[in-house]
Amino acid sequence: MSSEQTILLVDDDADFVEMNRLLLEQHGYAVRVAYSGRQCLDSVAAGRPDIIILDMVMEHPSDGFDVSRTLRNSEHTKCIPLVMITSANDSIPFRLEPDRTWLPVDALLEKPVDPQLLLAVVDKVLKGGSG
Asked: By percentage, how much of the chain surpasses pLDDT 70?
């Protein structure tokens, strides 16, 4: 891991953001934060991160879906690795899985996220694998 690798952490839960920001920084990552889909897109436009950790449901239930598809449909951002975090699988009658059309992410993690699993998935995705 290199301190040159930048993670954009996007979630509307400030406690979740702070806890995971500290964890990631302790493991050598530079971390930028955003608290909404709009802030995420603005942050990416201001400077490309190496990876984005994105909450699925923020201000609107579709925020994570919308942001992931927006990023994947742009030539400038389509190759940024995306890790989506959700608790939605607990409340819906089917299982969400990454796919190219509706959920174009490299990995999907369940909340609450185990810190060691988060670190392992970030490391794997940054190395070019899917989580």
From this structure: 83
Instruction: Determine the Cα–Cα distance for residues 80 and 105; give it in Å rounded to an integer.
Output: 10
Q: Please state which CATH class domain 6-126 belongs to.
A: alpha beta
Cα-to-chain-centroid distance, residue 35: 12
The token duo for 102 is 């509706």
Q: Which of 3, 17, 41 is nearest to 111 (CA)?
A: 17
* Structural domain spans, the chain: 6-126
Write down the pTM of the prediction: 0.88
Contacts (Cβ under 8 Å, ≥6 apart) of 125: 51, 81, 83, 106, 107, 131
